[in-house]
Structure formats: structure tokens, C-alpha cells
Request: fold
Amino acid sequence: MNRNRSYFLLLLLVIVLIISSVVYQKKYRDVSSPGTNKQYYKIVPLAIPDTLSFAGEPVPLDIFYVREALDRELSVNTYWHSSTLQLIKRAHRWLPMIDTILANRGIPLDFRYMPLVESGLRNVTSPAHAVGYWQLLRSTAKEYGLEVDKEVDERYSVEKSTRAACRFLKKSYSRFGSWTLVVASYNAGQKRIDRFLKQQKTKSFYDLLVAGETSRYIYRMLALKMIFENPEKYGFYIEPSQEYPVIPTHVVEVKGAVKDWAVFAQKHGISYKLLKYFNPWLRRTSLRNSHHKTYKIQIPDAPFNLTDAKLKE
Reply:
């Protein structure tokens, strides 16, 4: 009898421990983990919305290949965690400036996702020698008013390259009358898209057969739009303190030659590295400025240590 009672008590203890463990995990798992959505715990297909638009133009999600193309890019950008996480943090620093320029130039705000797709908001150079956040070719940059030479390359200026990109986008829209086709023309070129439209006898991008890179472009922008508008839905939980802040700067005008940018930086209380970070369009260690132009040099406001700055607040 005592033996049976011992077995019963032991069994009861095991059951209580199992139930307690399940309750504990259910109660604390969501709190300790940065996400509560399903895909944080397991890889699951992502829901495609019934309706979606780009720059006010509806996306025809009733077409199977449109829906599947969006599904692909949404999955890639959601599950490529490290890249998208860094992109969200980086965007906090640069999108306010880009958004303001887009608004002032009459470009739909959805185009804020174009430099994210083009460069990941980094000053990179493509194999085709396109440069900067907006990946402008030398000829395109010059056509839309940027200075590009051995000493100065304004494609590396976020502000000026954004303004040049806006001029391209507005001109392209006046040509095609569709923001979606504007996106395609930015990737493939206006003449090529125009030729494709005439050859294939269509007026819609979604009916157009184009190369793979151009075909994926709009869906990459749409996927990032969906993630940025509701990051937690896709498993990205970022505290405001974890985003990269906008760093205040002031302008110093340079109207003549500069023999040594490192000396110039030192005179303004910063390192050459900081000078180049905020003015990457300066391509040499000196500036002849033979045409006596006025250049606006961005100098970061002190303190430069953001942690120390927050402690003093």
C-alpha cells in the first residue's frame, strides 16, 4: 500500500512539474524574446495583403505572378534578418533628409525606399561604376546637375544626389505617366523601357516582360515599404535608442583652395575621418578649386561621442 502511494505521489509530482514548465514557458517566453510573432520561432510563409499600392497606384495582386514576386521579396527581406535590421537602424539617420527633399520636389514618399534598394543607404560603387546612395552613373549625374571630377564627386553627397535623383524621377514621370514605370526606367533606362512598351504593346509595368533585375525592383521596394510601415509584424523589434541618430552639423563655406583637408579638419576640431564621413564627396586630400566655387562643408557639432552626449542630457 505504501509502495503504491509512493508511486502515485511520484507520478503526481512529475505531472505538476510538466504543467509548471509549460505554464512558465508560455508566460515568460514572449517577454524575454524580442518577438511574439510566429516567424520569430519558426519559418512560416508571410501573409500577402489583399490590397497594396505604390505611389498611389494599385498593385494588381490578383495576378498570380505579381503576388508570387511580392511573396519572394517579402520573404527575402524579412528572413535576411541582419541586413534588414541594419537597414532599419541606418534609415533613421538618413530618411528624414531624403523624405524632406522628396516632399519639396513633389515626388511620392514611397520613393524613399529606392536608395534602400539601390545601395542599402551606403556609399557603394557598382560593377557598372554607379556611385552613391542613389547609384548614379557619371553621365546621368552630370546631366542632372552634379559635379563629378577627380577632386569632387557629388554623387557621394546624400543631399545633392537625392536632388538629382528627383530631377530624373520627375522627368521620367512626365514621359511615362506612371510611377511604377518610373521605377523600372530608373533601373533599366528610359529608352529601354520605352522600347519595351512599344514592342510589347502595353502601357503597364505589370504586363511588361523585362530582365530579372528590373522585374524584381518594384517588389523589393514594396517589400521594404511593408516591413518599414509595420516592422514588428515581420519580427523586427528595435528600441528608439537602438536606431542610428541624426547627427547635427553646421556648415563651413570654402571659396578658395584647400592645401590639406586633414589640416582643415584639425582647425575645426575634428578628425580627417569625421570630415570624410560627413563630406564623402571630397575625393582628394586637397582642393585646387580652380573655378573658385563655393563649397559647403558639413562639420559635426560637438560632442562627437553620442553616449557621452546622452549621459549629459
Observations:
- The radius of gyration is 26 Å.
- DSSP finds 13 helices and four strands in the chain.
- Strands lie at 53-54, 57-58, 249-254, 295-300.
- The mean pLDDT is 89.
